[in-house]
Amino acid sequence: MSPFEYQLAFSAVVLVIAGLLFWAIRRGDRYREQQRRERDDKDKPHSHLTA
What is residue 34's three-state secondary structure? Predict the structure, then answer.
């Protein structure tokens, strides 16, 4: 493989890893937000009406 092809492959791998990390972080944030909302709902049954 030529150096250019190595560069291309490396860039592709980095992009995939960055995308997976970004997706995992977004998913984790959404999960934590949902957990927090469920806890708040248990503490304050009508919180979603007043907020």
Answer: helix
